[in-house]
Amino acid sequence: MTRGTVVCGVTETPDGRSAAELASALGTRLGLRLVLVYVVDGVPQGTHESLTARQRQAGAEQALDEIARELGEGAEKRIMLGNRAEALAQVAAEEGADLVVIGSRPAGFGSRKLRSTLARELEAATPIPVVVAPPTTRKRTEHRLALAADAAVQ
Amino acid sequence: MRLSRLPLLWRVFAINATLLVIATLLLALTPVTIHEPIAIVEAIVLAVALAVMLAANLLLLRHTLQPVHRLVDRMRKIDLLQPGQRIPEQGGVEVAELTRGFNEMLERLETERRESGQRALRAQEAERRRIASGLHDEVGQVLTGVLLRLEDDETKEAVRQALEEVRRIARELRPEMLEQLGLVSALTELSRKFADSSGIRVERRFATDLPPLSDDSELAVYRVAQESLTNVARHADASRVEIALQPGPDSVVLRIIDDGRGIPTPDPFALNGHGGLRGMRERALLVGGALAVKRGGEGGVEVRLEVPAGED
Fold it and tell me: Across the interface, which of B74, B266, B289 has its CB nearest the CB of A78?
C-alpha cells in the first residue's frame, strides 16, 4: 500500500539538515513516504537553461543526493526553481502531502523561540500543515520524538 | 487599544500627528531660533530636522502599509490550479477585512472553477462518445461494406488498414473497456496496445485490493495514463515503462515511470506549450486528486496521480 506523504524543504545548512532528519524520523515513525525538496531560488523565470541556473541545479542535486544518502534509502528527491514558499507549496500539492517540514533558526532571549520566515509565507501558500523543525543546537531525543509522533497519530 | 488594531486612517494620522507634536515641542522647548534673513547654520539645522522628520514619516508609513503590500503581492501570486491557498487575516481593520473578502472570493472562484471544469469535462467526454459512436457505427460500417465488394487485394488491404485505424481512434475516444470491465482491465488493455504499437516494454504492477473509485475518478486515472503513455511514445525515447496502480491512504495512486531522456526542467508545468500536462493537472484537480510530473529515480519521467477513494 502507498502511504501518506511528508514533504520536507531541505538546504545544505544545519537547519535544513535538521529538518530532513526530523522529516525522516517522522516518516519512519508514522509510515509516511518522504519527499525531499531542494529549492534553487533567485533564478528568474525563463532562464532555467542558462549556465548559472544549470550550475546551481547541479549543485542542488549533489547536495540533495548527499542529504538523502545520509538519511538512508527510500527518500524521493525533487529540485525546484523559484520562490521557496511557492515551490514547496506546489510540490506539497502535487505530491498530495499530509505534512510539510521545514527548518528554523533560534531567536529571542536565550534562543528559546524559533524563527522561520518561510513558515509564515507557507501559511498563505498552502493549506497543508507545516511543522517547523527545531535547530540542531537543541537536544532531540528519540523519546521526545516518539511522544510527539504518538500525539500526532491520536 | 494597540496601534496595529486602529483603522488605517487613524494610524496614518497618529504617525503624522506624533511627528508634528515632536517638531512643535522641539521648537517650543529648545533655544532654536530662525532669523530674517536665515543664517547658514540655521538653514542646515532646519534641513537636517526636516530630513529626519521625513525619513521617520516614510519609515513609519512603510511599516504601517506593509500588510497592504503583502496582500497585493499574495493576490498576484494566487494560482487557481493550486486550490486551498488562503491569506492570513493580519494587519489593521481594513486590511483584515480586505483579506477576508479576498479569501471569500477565492472560495467562490474555486467552487465555480471546479463546477465549470466538471461540466466542461463531462461535455467533452459526451462529445467524444458521440464521435466514437459515429466513427464505429457509421464510418466503420461503410468501410466494411466497401471491403466486402472490393476484389483488388492491394485496395482491400488499404481499406482494411483504414478500418483498423478508425476502430483504434474510436477506442481511444471512448474507453468501452473502462465502462464494461473496470479500471484495471482498461489499463491492462491500454498498456498492451501501447506496447504493441510503440515497441516499448511495459511492466504492469496492479494491486488487487484497490478501493472503489467514482466514475469521474476512474476516468481521470484512465485519461492521465493514456496521456502519459502518449507522451512516452512521442517524446521520451524510452525502452521500458512501468505502470503501477496501488492503494493509498483512502486513495488510489497511479504511477507511470519511464527510462527515457527525462525532462529538461524540474518543473514541467512552468513550460509553455505543454497543454497536455495542464489538462492532466486539471483532470486531477477536478476529482480532488494530486498530480506530480517529475524526474524519475533512474532518469526518465515519473507521473504520479493520487485520487481519493469513494464511489461518489
Answer: B266
Spans of all domains in chain B: 3-112, 175-312
Q: Using CB atoms and an 8 Å cut-off, which of residues 251-270 of chain B contact chain A? A: 251, 253, 264-267, 270
- Over residues A14-59, the pLDDT tens digits come to 888 889 999 999 988 888 999 999 998 877 666 666 777 778 888 8
Q: How many CB pairs under 8 A join A and B?
A: 77
Q: Establish whether this prediction's ipTM goes over 0.95.
A: no
Could you tell me which CATH number the domain at A5-153 has?
Answer: 3.40.50.620
Nearest CA among A117, A58, A46, B11 for reference residue A38: A58
Q: Does domain B175-312 have CATH number 1.20.120.740?
A: no
What pLDDT digit, counting tens, does each position of A75-127 carry? 899 988 888 888 999 999 999 999 999 988 766 665 566 667 788 888 878 88
Chain B residue whose CA is closest to A45:
B270
Taking an 8 Å cut-off on Cβ atoms, the answer to whether A89 and B74 are in contact is: no
Which one-letter amino acid corresponds to residue A77?
A: K
- The closest CB to that of A48, out of B265, B292, B304, belongs to B265
Question: pTM surpassing 0.80?
Answer: no
Three-class SS of residue B113?
helix
Distance from CA of B288 to the nearest CA of A (A): 10
Strand pairing partners for B202? B241
C-alpha cell at B307: 485520487
Domain ranges across chain A: 5-153
Using only the alpha carbons of chain A, give its radius of gyration.
15
